[in-house]
Amino acid sequence: MLDSLFDDVKRMNKRQFIYQVLSFGMIVSSALMIWKGLMVVTGSESPIVVVLSGSMEPAFHRGDLLFLTNYPEEPVRVGEIVVFKVEGRDIPIVHRVLKLHEKNNGTVKFLTKGDNNSVDDRGLYAQGQLWLTKKDVVGRARGFLPYVGMVTIYMNEYPKFKFAVLACLAIYVLVHRE
Amino acid sequence: MTESTEVVKINKWDGAAAKNAIDDAIREVFTGDLKCKESFALIDGRLFLCALAVGVALYALLWDYLYPFPQSRLVLIICVSSYFILMGILTLYTTFKEKGIFVVAKEKVGNNNRVWEASSYVKKHDDKYSLVVVMREAGGAGGAGRCREASVNKSFATYIDVNGAVVQSVVLAEITKLYNSLSSEKKEK
């Protein structure tokens, strides 16, 4: 069975094999370039995020896919849902802006809170941090797609499953001719 | 007969696999039995485009890693747009330049250089393997170059036996027939 799987590869000559590897590379790089292109278009370093917690219910549920933009000319306003990063935390947080102070020179500081949380986010911020500023913002939610992100959540919860799926896809592409 | 034919065992109802196997057999006939020299310029061109595209993507990845996003914006714009332009060029190259040509073989006959190009095409869910062989001849002493074309449209079953092995002798006979008719036609005129 395994033997016949690699039959195609064995029969390839040098150039066919290089092409096979390159076409696999092109599949990966197409995805990468689409992602980077979205980054440029939306201005956000992570234009699509998945909601991981229920802290924004009933607006967003666990597993919702969010589309973000982060245009510097658009001001942050109270009531908007922002995605922000906190020092010392790997995963960005999606919460609503509760209070906002804006200076004449354009600098802002604001406080956020999850709709479903009973207290504001000061406890989540880095030690001693009372406000968020523009540089903490990853983007602002512009649209969402319910449930689609559950796939990503399962994949991250079962990393072995994720690697198995990825490995299968990679082997299929590498081994199968055209 | 070549050794590789002993190993080849394919499902002839898997169109792509059957096509690849027959393509390989025909390439072997041209480079082996007919003693032509294979020219890799066409496939090398495609490999170059692919490698360039992957290189551009890797460069973008590296640059974005070294200079995180807002800084890398300009480089990303350039890389992303050139990547998609390269993809477009690659598509044009495969559809209009390569056109399914899987072997280009060069041959020297007297003072003339002949180039043989074989391309094949299989429709989805069809068992007909259509082979087109083109012969180009540089017109030796000042004569205009000649270009002749012949095609065969036969089922996979013609070339592949019940065990799923490509019958090299049938392929050889078929190609020799095409080769002779294209070569001799030239002399009649």
- Silhouette of chain A: elongated
Could you state the order of secondary-structure elements of chain A as H and E? HHHEEEEEEHH
Task: Evaluate the radius of gyration of chain B.
Answer: 21 Å
Counting copies of identical and different chains, the oligomeric state is heterodimer
Main pleated sheet of chain B:
5 strands, antiparallel
- Which range best describes the helical content of chain B: under 10%, 10-25%, 25-40%, 40-55%, 55-70% or over 70%? 55-70%
Distance between the termini of chain A: 20 Å
Q: How are the strands ordered across the major sheet of chain B?
A: 1-2-3-4-5
In CATH, the architecture of the largest domain in chain A is Roll
Query: Total helix count of chain A?
Result: 5
Radius of gyration of chain A: 22 Å
* Count of individual beta strands of chain B: 5
Count interface residues per chain for the largest interface: A-B, 25 and 35 residues
Tell me the count of domains of chain A: 2
The shape of chain B is elongated
Which structural class best describes the helix and strand composition of chain B? alpha+beta
Q: What is the fold-level CATH name, i.e. the topology of the largest domain in chain A?
A: SH3 type barrels
β-sheet strand percentage of chain B? 15-25%
Keywords:
heterodimer; A: 178 residues; alpha+beta; SH3 type barrels; 2 domains; six-stranded antiparallel β-sheet; 5 helices; B: 189 residues; five-stranded antiparallel β-sheet; 6 helices; 55% helix; disordered N terminus
